[in-house]
Amino acid sequence: MTEPGRPVGEGWLDRLADPQVTRHLIADEGEIIIDEVRRHWMAVIVPIIELVVSVLVLFMMLFLEADYFWVPLAVALGLAAHAGFRILEVHMDRFVITNMRVFRVHGIFSQHLATMPMQRILDIAVHKPFIGRVFGYGHFVFESAAQDQGLRDIRFVGRPDERDLTIQRVIQRSGIRRSAQMGRGDGM
Q: What is the mean pLDDT of the chain?
């Protein structure tokens, strides 16, 4: 039996490689996805280098005696498995901006979900290292009323300025900032 909204024929492997962010929406309250942020491609550079090194190690097998071919084979398979796991880990990491909250879903075998309602976001710091400015990514640091939460650092966000503006617009449209500003203006 298939889940509602899931195409027929989609198997367990497809479900394993998809973080399924829509199942975390509060659809009956009208929550919709504004932006689903996948990690920037620079987050997989190190695993890709690992894959290239594993191929080079495989070529070493051609130059070794037949008794020792298994050593580079084992090293290459280990490197390739580690790289594949890291690539899947990056693929499964999603940061989602909705009209009500922001949340992050990540994890391969066990999934972790961290949520922050828009009204709890006090500040968003965007850090763009030099290499991030060149390739178009940055890192978010969320400051909230509850400092101990699982949604503080979001790394390798593509187009960070645009995503920051999206969050600011959602906060503004929800009326959270207007009411906070009115409250400060009335007391003075």
A: 85
The whole-angstrom separation of Cα 43 and Cα 135 is 11
pLDDT value for 2: 44
Letter for the amino acid at 142?
F
Do 107 and 21 meet the contact criterion of CB atoms below 8 Å apart?
A: no
According to the model, what pLDDT value does residue 11 have? 66
Give the pTM.
Answer: 0.80
Helices (H), 12-140: 12-16, 45-60, 70-91, 130-135
pLDDT at 98: 95
CA nearest to 153, candidates 93, 73, 75, 80: 93
Same domain (yes/no): 105, 160? yes
Burial class (CB in 10 A: 0-12, 13-18, 19+), 53: middle
107/91 Cα distance (integer angstroms): 9
User: Does one domain contain both 77 and 99?
Assistant: no
The boundaries of the domain holding residue 169 are 12-39+94-186
Q: Tell me the per-residue pLDDT of 126-150, one tens digit each, with 9 for 90 and over.
A: 999 999 999 999 999 988 776 656 7
| Alpha-carbon 90 to chain mean position | 7
